[in-house]
């Protein structure tokens, strides 16, 4: 069974006629045709008063041709392109903004048919929702494709991380069409393709990293956001390359444990925070006790034997490490009483 991929198309940038020049030329032809029609209607007065039938037929045929030629005008806004298709043959892409004229038989239908296969319509709606009304999708006819940057704000996905913990994750992708030929001919609908592949890439990425507790020197989703976002961008670019789409930016917008394990993981994080705080307190207390004993010994404030020094260390550690306020007991006798 032959499973080799179909050959990909590549964009060929072409130029068409200036619209204003062609408009002036067609108007001149139209006025000349009206003059020919009037001349044919008057007839040859030197012979008879009947109109000239041949000239009238020619005038009418020429008028029909002019009407068809007038349908070749089209406009392009900045960061907008038109794919030129003539009877199923790709002729090139116009990227220059302005008023243009091209072959009136270039395909004027939408370049992206909506797929009604399983999940296709849902992905299309998701892509349309993420793009918004101001994204200039420009699929209203004449094979126009917007080259502007678009934002795909993905929904929250429930996936399992590398350790099998259920997590919620979401990402935002900034993308744009780079090759109009690939976007038009190599995929059925490039917007649905982008939405579907973004979800698939995000699910795959989440399975490669642990949420927070990885092995030594291992990147995690929460601890290495920049590295994870770069990995997501690279994977998306590899997937989108088939559709002629470039990824400008990709980053995580939401990351959390799933609700069923969120409380347990919160208690774990709280416990680790308490342990870390205790370690910091103990380290500080040991340093302070060491400093106090050193200062007392160097300044000969008091000479303590090992037993009294141990008692002093114990009392200082209790004072420095205790959570509640310490109420000291004042000894009114001698040091050894």
Outline of this structure?
The protein is α+β, with helices and mostly antiparallel strands and 337 residues long.
Which features would summarize this protein structure in a list?
337 residues; alpha+beta; Tetrahydropterin Synthase, Chain A; 3-stranded antiparallel β-sheet; 10 strands
CATH class of the largest domain reads Alpha Beta
The CATH topology of the largest domain is what?
A: Tetrahydropterin Synthase, Chain A
String of helices and strands: EHHEEEEHEEEEHHHEHH
Low-confidence stretches: 111-140
Q: Please indicate the percent range of residues in DSSP E strands (runs of 2 or more).
A: 15-25%
- Helix amount, in percent? 40-55%
CATH architecture annotation of the largest domain: 2-Layer Sandwich
Query: Span from first to last CA?
Result: 98 Å
Oligomeric state of shown chains: single chain
- Looking at the structure, what is the overall shape? rod-shaped
Count of DSSP strands: 10
**Total helical elements:** 8
Rounded average pLDDT: 80
Quickly count the domains: 3
Q: Mind summarizing the main beta sheet?
A: 4 strands, antiparallel
Structural class: alpha+beta
Going by CATH, the homologous superfamily of the largest domain would be: Band 7 domain
The radius of gyration is: 39 Å
What would you say this structure looks like, in words?
There is one protein chain. The protein is an alpha+beta fold and 337 residues long. The protein has eight helices and ten strands. It folds into three domains: 17-101; 120-257, Band 7 domain (Tetrahydropterin Synthase, Chain A, 2-Layer Sandwich), CATH 3.30.479; 263-321. It has helices at residues 19-42, 53-70, 120-131, 180-185, 190-206, 225-240, 259-298, 306-321; strands at 17-18, 73-76, 80-86, 89-94, 98-101, 144-146, 150-153, 157-160, 166-177, 245-257. It is rod-shaped, with a radius of gyration of 39 Å.
